[in-house]
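CHAIN AND CONFORMATION:

***
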Amino acid sequence: MKILEACFLVIVITAATVNSSPIADHDLSNEKNVHRNHHRTRRATENEYRRMSPSDRPKCKSGSTMPRPPNEVNTTSRLQKLRALFPAYDGIKAYYIPTEDAHQSEYVAAHDERRVYISGFSGSAGTAVVTEDKAALWTDGRYFLQAEAELDCNWILMKQGETGVPSSTEWLGSLLSAGDKVGANPTLMPIDSWQVIENRMKDKSISLIGNSTDLVDEIWPDSERPAFPNGDIIILNTTFSGKSWKDKVTELRKKMADKNTRALFVTALDETAWLFNLRGSDIAYNPFFISYAIVEENNVRFYLSNKTGRLTPKIAVHLSTGTTGDCSGKTGICVQVKPYEDALSDMKNLNDTSSTKKVWISPASSYAVYSSIPASQVLKERSPIQLLKAVKNQVERDGYERCQIRDSAALIEFLAMLEKDVKSGSKQWNEISAASKLEEYRRMQQYNMGLSFNTISAVGSNGAVIHYSPAPSTNKNLTTTEMYLLDSGGQYLDGTTDVTRTLHFGTPTEEMKQAYTRVLMGAINLAMMIWPEGTYGREIDSAARAPLWSYGWNYRHGTGHGIGAFLSVHEGPGRICLGSVCPVPSTRSALYEHMFFSDEPGYYEPDQFGVRLETIVMVVKANTPNNFGNKTYLTFKPVTLVPFETHLIKYDLLDDKQTKWLNDYHAECMEKVGKVLQAAGKTEAYKWMEARVQQISTSGQAFLTANMLLAFCLVVISRVL
């Protein structure tokens, strides 16, 4: 059985390498990929699309007696008000409401949660489309259960990647007529998404029209809408960043010269924060501030919301600018600080038909930015900041590993206390109180700046909701009979953390242990992978899924995301993913040395439990006897150091290599985190960890060498073919 599973792993990895075309991770970008996938599924007819209805959802069926979830949002009045604006808005017949803000952020400020307001769905990924008499929401597999609960029966739920689910343009094409118009805000839609939708609509003689007046903004009462963000901004000194902003600008200008460009327009909020060594608080859990930047050959401009209030004397000195943001009389590299509202007009002023050099714009920028100057003057290519930011320098790497040790110690101390209370019954804990207490433990750690995302504290069936967020209406108590999935992280001056562990404080069922063990096997498989430099995450993702696939299980999310250094918990451009959750290649990159990623396979049994195990790993050079093709070979080094749950592991499923990896990992946990706990006098936490890091003996079975296994698999494949 183990040989067959290993062979299966070889086959799926080979398949992933050969057929590695990525597919977008949200509907707007997915427009250009959905058609190529239909040869693998039954193509639904336009009549079937037209007949799609909210009544297709179980709770919305006629006569359904299913209780309405407590977190469902009534959107009837909001939809009526939105539709009432259609006639005055060029007579549109439908309107797009994406998740993103003007900077195409994954997580947006509460002020910019337009899609949440109109639909009631609070997940971080999704696109809403409203017609004169229908409303539909597209989202990926992470959010199917959450969307089903939160969307009321005004909405059709479009489950991306599922058989028979159309793209938004296919759905609109089945409903609208030639000559009709579809509206959207070009400030909120990425370039590629806009162009793909526009071209698909043209095929049906339907127009996509843009207006900077957002219709959701028009119907969202000021009394209900959160204020525009205006948080404090702090300076991140080189003790943590490892490189001055002036050095970063110099490095950028070299990249620009290599591409024959005269200006780089920076739109992503994590990029402006990284570039200027500044951090803010405009978006919950993300240390960003609303801003743009333009880097030119001789000038640097920084567009900051509430410039007057936020350009403090200290920040002015940091940016080598005047107290009003003026560079007059300054020598060397100076940052001109301007009002946020001037950015797009200044972008238009970069129009220079006499220059042979272009303006560099990221494909992730908004269509409004892209269309502000002629396309002939634009280099549309991934921002050079993405790779510079993702490949951490020595100072960032050292700080990141130290912050992971502190964060791991905080989590271990919390879990030791929690387990003791739940097992003894001395104190009742629920999802919300547990998440709140864990936050207290993190905030006591050196350099902590808060959480990196809203803690996923999920008991039993709530754990099956992949990105569940505890709320009073869904809050469950921790018990000794149900699984507990805890996905949490912190922001620190020297790093950003993200760790998931799944626990059971009683006697787990065999199915729970089977699921936990296979998820663990997948995590170990990925952690042990060795690959040649230039390999993409999509080419190794299947290593984590193989133990689940061989059992007929899978999960509807990517296996790994990049992570920032006191920046975003989800950082590009690298990603480890497959299929419909894998983004398009224009904004993705290979996995390079000194990038950090999550390693987080999972399994989710609807209405029962969820298992996810997430460990942050760093890409490092692998110790290989050869380097075929004169290439560097890479592997992963774990930096999260929290032990796994021994009573949830079926050790007979692990092979000797997996067992050795687990033993080595647990020894490192004890060596690095154990010292911290002992030094701090955290005896109970130390004992909790000590009980989980006992070395496990291997089976003593003889193992096939890699070459023997490959030869065996080739024989099997040849016989099948």
The chain is about 35% helix and 15% strand.
